Amino acid sequence: MKVGDLVRLSAYGKKRVRAEWIDHDDVGIITKVVVYNCGRGPWPDDYMVHWAQSEWSRTKSWGLERSNTRKDLMYVK
Question: Of 44, 54, 61, 68, which is least surrounded by CB within 10 A?
């Protein structure tokens, strides 16, 4: 996945607490990819997504995290 790709939550992503604030039918665009290359283990990349309809707020989100892992997302068909 890269910046500009259209995505939605995967079945796995819909089950995650960190994504409970995202509408399950929402579509988003990847705005940033954060690659962790620290050499201490296989850390997954984080994907910052701008969702079309879901509004992030501190009261509805998991901590302050707004990013998703690759497993949380799937391409829009």
Answer: 44
Phi, psi torsion values for 13, nearest 5 degrees: -65, -35
> Is pTM beyond 0.70 here?
yes
Per the structure, how many domains does the chain have? 1
Cβ proximity of 31 and 52 under 8 Å: no
In a domain, 1, yes or no: no
- Is 53 inside any structural domain? yes
The domain containing residue 35 runs over which residues?
A: 6-75
The string of pLDDT tens digits covering residues 49-60 is 888 888 776 555
pLDDT exceeds cutoff 60 at 19: yes
Between the CA atoms of 11, 16, 18 and 23, what dihedral angle is there, to the nearest 10 degrees? Answer: 40
In a domain, 39, yes or no: yes
Other Cβ atoms less than 10 A from the Cβ of 57: the count is 8
